[in-house]
Amino acid sequence: MFSNIKDLGIWKRYVIIILFTIVISFSINKILFLPIVTMADNNAWLQYWGNVIGALVAGLVTLWGIETTIKSTLMNVKPLIKPINTEFYIYHNSEGNYVMTDKSFLHLIEEYYRNIEIEIDEYKMLIVDVLYEKVVNERENNRWQKDIENVDFENFRSEITKVHKYQNGENAFSNLDRDADKLDDTGYSYNGKAIKEIFHDIRETCIERIADRVFFEEKMRGIYPNIVVPVYNVGAGNAVDVSFNWTFKENCYKKILDKIGFNDKDYERLNRGLSLTNINPFSTDILLNMNGENKMHLPLAYQLANLVKHIFVKKLDNRNANVVINDDLSVNYSRIADLHIECKDVYGDPSENSYKVLFKMIDDIGEEYGYKKTHINLKFEEC
Description:
The chain is of the alpha+beta class and 383 residues long. It folds into three domains: 2-75; 79-102 and 225-382; 111-218, no CATH class. The protein contains twelve helices and ten strands. The strands form two sheets. It has a seven-stranded antiparallel β-sheet with strand order 3-2-10-9-8-5-6. Helix 2 packs antiparallel against helix 3 (42-76) and helix 5 (126-138) packs across helix 9 (189-219). The radius of gyration is 36 Å and the shape is elongated. Mean pLDDT is 75; it is low at 186-190.
């Protein structure tokens, strides 16, 4: 019965309220003639029941009005799930090793540098000896030579060990820079500058070791890189039963592979280690005001990540073999895949959108601690 009332229009509900009020009024009039002992007269009872009925009618009208407004808003503006353009990176070294990550390498190094204790003790101070000798040799026959040679080197080494103990990199080298004058037994300001140069060289060497460790840890993540695509609900309604399905149409990605010179062996290697047909859809719900920004992070399909790796390796092989291929992947976007998104609103009505996944690969100039960087850009355009 109540579910049937909810389905009625607002004017039909008002008619029901009017009829309900008339029936109640006649019923109250009959009740007033019952032989009930009371201190109040008929006028007082009529006033009491009039207030009760008026409040009840006003409450029902207000509730139905609010319900109608909310329902109208939700039904007129549907949820819309939209992927946002994203960027990630491939880092590689001269030995041909490479990793894929959605964080910049410098950010990963800085994170490690701030959180991990520097491993320096009395048995790992050969690096200090080497760098000290390096500075001495570089300053040979100039005005700093004698000042550097007058440094109490044993005290210098023990002070570095003491300051680094139980410290992360940022704090350790900040403390060393601040206490550099304590290691200057000659009293000359030149010597303090030379000591700071030694600290700088030690710091750079430590960061190079951290870079190697960060690179190794990223590589150990295996074939499932930690890469995500931000996805927003740009509509006004809650989105439930949201399904993301990556698809690969051969005429899309094969154009890219042909363009960079894939041969039969390359295609055989690609097909042997990668299937672009069976991709499990990813499902979730995106609710308004549930996570602060009304968004979520969609994991990048590992098939797409691996396809990007194959393209990267082929382009790298082309460069190493001095093979000139007239591809424009570093200039223009190329279609590499499709992303299909389905969802339902709170009333169960379906909604779906499809996006072209556009791809661009840009090599960076220069190196970061021995590692070169390639930018991977993904752009999404509605089909």
